[in-house]
Structures are given as C-alpha cells and as structure tokens.
Inverse folding.
C-alpha cells in the first residue's frame, strides 16, 4: 500500500494517508503534506524538531499535528521529510520531525499550504489498516 | 445538515453559475450558513460562488449583534486578502516597450512565491504597532504618502485590533513578510485601461482609456493563516458551549459578544491591518520600480492610489432602512464591499460617485473597476463579487495545461509573464477560472455594482 494518495478539490487539495497503525497514519499524513510542498528526495535531515500537542480528540489532534508542522515550515523555513510519532494518546501526541532549511538552489517549492482544515476530516480503521483523509487550504 | 434554515439562501447568478455551484455542493454551504444563530435577512452568495471551507467562497452573511455569531471560517484563512489599484499619468501605447523592464524591476523588489521573505524585518514592538495602527503606521515610517490613507477602506486601519490576542506563533509567521506577494492567485499586474463604461465615475477615480495602471492582489500571508487556524480550534469548543450545533467543523463560530467572539475580532483586525500594511509596503516598492525605470519621481508619474479594498473579512456595519438601522457583523468571504454614493464610509473624494470596487480577473483576460450602489445596500449588505472563481482544480490544471506553453501563448499576445515557477503558472491559467466578464455583468445587471472601467493585463508577476 502506498503511504498516501492525493485527493483533488476545485480550489484546494488533500491527501488520503494509509497506515498499519494509527501512529503510522499520522506519520504518513505528514509525509503526504510535505510531498505536496516539495520533492522530499532532495531534502536532508540536518534539523530535528520535537513536537508536543494536546487537543480535545483524535481528529483535532491530526489537524493540530499538521498545522504545527506548517507553522515550523512557514516560520523557520524548514522542509520536513521524516516523522516519528513516539506517543499517541486520545488527546495528546508527541513526535519528532527531521528535515532541513529551505535552500532555493536545491529545493523547488510547488505549493503554499496555508493550513490543514477540518473539512471532510476522517480517521477510520479499514479492513487492512488505518485511513485518514484531510484537506488543505492552499 | 441537521439544523433548520432561519432565513432563505439567495444566490445572485445566471443559470450556468447556479448549476456549477450546485454541482460542487456550494449551494449546500449557503444553506448551512442560513442555519447559524442570529443571521439577518438571508444567506447570500455572489455570482463567483464556489465551494469553500464551511462557508462558500463568494458568500455574504450578516449577523445581529445581540444574538448573532462571528466565524473565522466566514472570513477565510487569508484574512483581508484584497486588491489595490494604482493609476499613472502614462499612456500604455507610449510606454509599451518598458513593460518588460518594469516587470523585471518589480519582481526584483517584491519577493513572490512560496515562503519568500522580504527586506523589511520588524521587531516585536514594531510589529505590535503595525498590527494596531495598520497602513497609516507604515506610511509614517516612509512607505507611502499621507494621501494614500484616504484612498483605502477604513483609512487603512481597522479599529479594535489587539495584538495581545494574536499568538506569538502567528506573529513569528508574519515577521519577514510585509511587502511580499505570496503564492497561489496573488499577483501584481501592469494593466491597460481598455474600456470605460462610466465617464463621470472614471474621472472621479482618476482613470481614463489608454492609461497604464498597476494592480496588486495579496493578503495577510502566514500571520493571517495562523490566526484563522488557531481561532477555528478555539471556536469549535466555544460553539459547543453556546449550544450551537455545527454540521461542519469549518463553520466553527462563537456569539459576537462572547469572550471568544471578541478575541477573534481583535485578532482578525490585526491580520486586516497586516494585510493592508503589506499592500502599502508593496505600493512603495512599485513606486520605486517606476522611478527607477522612468528616471522620474513617482509624483510626476502620477502614481496615485485609486483604492484598496479587501474581499475576506468581517466588519461591524449599519444596515437597514433609515430609522430602523441595525448594527450587524457582516462577513464577506470572497465578496467585496460595494457602498453607494453619499455613504459616510466612502472617501470624501469619491463620495459623489460611490466606493471604487476592484475585481481582479485572470492573467489572460481582464480585471474591473466598478462602483458601489444603493441596490447593494438594500439587497446584499453593500456587497458584490470579488473575482472570477475557480472552475478547475490546481492539479487538474497542471495535467491539461503546460506552464511553459501558457507563458508563450500569453507572451505572443503581448503579455509579459514572470512567475516564481513556470510550471505553477498552469494552476492560474485563464481557463481554470470562470469568465470574469460574465461575473461582472451579472453583478451589473443585478445592480450590486456598476461597471466603470475594464483593465487588460500587459505584464504579470505571479507568486
């Protein structure tokens, strides 16, 4: 199974992430989002970010996780490529993201993602693993 | 939708626009908004309606102060995204040859594209001032002229802004971004006035046939996006506490008078002031570019601001018949204020003709300068359309349109094109938008705004 696929909307774009576990679905959603921004093959792993989030439920946690990564991308110009969710509870998440600062000579930026939205947001357990769907405002 | 419509939904459109809106479920969104507490008269949509998050884009909704709500989703992520038009004393036919150098100078000075930062970096204290005092503050710091202030909606500053309500993260996202264009549909265009529909209004706005003008379309950048993101989360909880049932979490809202409602307004106003300051800094850089190319002062070149108007915001306004006026919180998400002649909020120099309405089109067709009307006051809380509205998704566009071919096609028509990334240009091709002439015509016939001038692109910078 691929880690994610792209969902298209008229004005915006989203991803459907897959994973054997819920933790993996969170990680793959992050990979999917940064793949929309840039070609991750060309991104190194010099920078490490520790992330801690709290939210009222699992779905909000997913939106908050992705919005936290967008904040890191936009404020610190970081392209993130690898993610590890080290602890996932009902209302709290801890994780680590690896990536590097944007270098315009090596990195093409393809999309400006403003935010992860709650629209049509889904996390569910399917017959062969977990699926999450999320739409971004671009 | 589980709720009950409290008012009707009303869409200003011709048959084809209604069919498009229905197909992509934007009409359901108009209906959802009609169920929100305290909504007045009707849940409205302009002819450029298309599907948005929670609220449709092209939507207008007004809520009563006593029992109504305010919603970040009813404003959108790019708070106070808007357009400004700058006139010149130049005749397009006489300076056609300079357009490529103008585009070059503009793109050298104004960073465009994903994640680009500008030259102007502010410290924490300066940022607070900018968020509170808006465009007049950046003018005081040397980015523009005093006369610019009166040619802006609200004089360039929305009252009630409180930087304490803006998170440090939102401020951090905004630090390097004043005077930057951003990506997506944002642009700077050098345009030619190719048609005048209303001589008297055009004269009042300082616009005439054959003239060279400049249009800038940008918003509040990362700062506005972060404010919206954070308050949608806060208001999800606030709506539940107020007993408001939401069919879609993007409709998150809070009573206007609640703590969350007041705090969102104060934060949103900061983002509005940031967006207007951003376009003001850009105006200064546009004047510098022209001075450099023409070796003449911006004053001599007649680079005066015609108007600056936002199309994503919520404001407190008085509406209704004389003697029965009500104070309402009017949300415009992809809709432009369109106030009539005589209204006190229209700048003194335009009061006899009405507020200038600027409607950006796609880069191959045209943009419009319109004027506000009494009919808009009566029927749409003083609002009209904001643009063409997308009909094709971004990735779908990339599949069927080649950015390099598109650039060549536009250049063959005499339009100079500069894009952060040529492949991304396909996402903004003329064919991914509705026909702007038709959108503006529907508003004209409905009387929500009247045509004053049509502007055709000669040079385009895309993010």
């Amino acid at each position: 199974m691929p880690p994610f696929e792209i969902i298209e909307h008229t004005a915006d774009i989203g991803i459907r992430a897959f994973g054997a576990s819920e933790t993996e679905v969170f990680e793959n959603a992050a990979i999917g989002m940064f793949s929309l921004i840039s070609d991750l093959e060309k991104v190194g792993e010099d920078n490490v970010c520790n992330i801690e989030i709290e939210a009222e439920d699992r779905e909000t946690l997913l939106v908050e996780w992705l919005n936290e990564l967008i904040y890191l991308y936009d404020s610190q110009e970081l392209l993130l490529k690898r993610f590890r969710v080290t602890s996932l509870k009902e209302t709290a998440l801890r994780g680590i993201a690896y990536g590097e600062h944007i270098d315009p000579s090596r990195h093409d930026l393809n999309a400006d993602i403003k935010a992860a939205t709650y629209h049509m947001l889904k996390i569910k357990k399917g017959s062969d693993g977990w699926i999450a769907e999320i739409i971004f405002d671009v | 939708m589980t709720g009950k419509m409290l008012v009707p939904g009303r869409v200003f459109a011709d048959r084809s626009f209604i069919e498009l809106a229905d197909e992509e479920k934007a009409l359901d969104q108009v209906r959802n908004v009609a169920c929100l507490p305290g909504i007045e008269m009707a849940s409205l949509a302009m002819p450029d309606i298309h599907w948005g998050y929670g609220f449709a884009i092209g939507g207008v909704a007004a809520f009563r102060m006593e029992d109504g709500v305010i919603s970040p989703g009813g404003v959108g992520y790019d708070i106070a995204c808007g357009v400004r038009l700058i006139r010149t004393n130049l005749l397009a036919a006489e300076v056609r040859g300079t357009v490529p150098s103008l585009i070059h100078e503009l793109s050298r000075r104004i960073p465009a594209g994903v994640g680009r930062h500008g030259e102007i970096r502010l410290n924490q204290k300066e940022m607070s001032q900018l968020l509170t005092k808006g465009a007049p503050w950046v003018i005081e710091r040397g980015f523009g002229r005093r006369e610019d202030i009166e040619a802006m909606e609200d004089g360039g500053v929305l009252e009630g802004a409180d930087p304490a309500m803006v998170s440090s993260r939102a401020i951090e996202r905004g630090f390097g971004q004043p005077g930057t264009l951003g990506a997506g549909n944002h642009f700077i265009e050098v345009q030619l006035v190719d048609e005048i529909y209303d001589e008297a209004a055009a004269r009042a706005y300082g616009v005439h046939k054959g003239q060279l003008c400049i249009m800038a379309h940008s918003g509040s950048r990362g700062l506005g996006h972060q404010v919206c993101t954070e308050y949608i989360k806060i208001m999800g909880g606030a709506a539940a506490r107020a007993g408001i049932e939401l069919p879609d979490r993007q409709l998150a809202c809070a009573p206007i008078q609640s703590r969350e409602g007041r705090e969102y307004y104060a934060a949103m106003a900061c983002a509005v002031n940031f967006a207007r300051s951003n376009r003001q800094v850009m105006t200064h850089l546009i004047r510098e570019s022209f001075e450099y190319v023409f070796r003449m002062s911006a004053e001599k070149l007649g680079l005066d601001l015609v108007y600056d108007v936002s199309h994503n915001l919520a404001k407190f306004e008085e509406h209704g018949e004389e003697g029965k006026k009500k104070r309402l919180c009017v949300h415009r998400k992809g809709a432009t204020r369109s106030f009539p002649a005589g209204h006190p909020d229209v700048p003194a120099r335009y009061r006899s003709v009405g507020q200038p309405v600027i409607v950006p089109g796609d880069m191959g067709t045209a943009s419009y300068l319109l004027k506000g009307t009494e009919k808009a006051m009566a029927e749409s809380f003083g609002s009209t359309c904001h643009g063409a509205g997308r009909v094709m998704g971004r990735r779908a566009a990339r599949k069927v349109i080649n950015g390099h071919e598109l650039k060549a096609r536009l250049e063959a028509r005499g339009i100079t094109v500069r894009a952060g990334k040529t492949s991304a240009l396909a996402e903004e091709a003329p064919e991914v938008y509705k026909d702007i002439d038709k959108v503006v015509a529907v508003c004209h016939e409905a009387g929500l705004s009247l045509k004053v001038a049509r502007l055709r692109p000669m040079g385009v910078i895309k993010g």
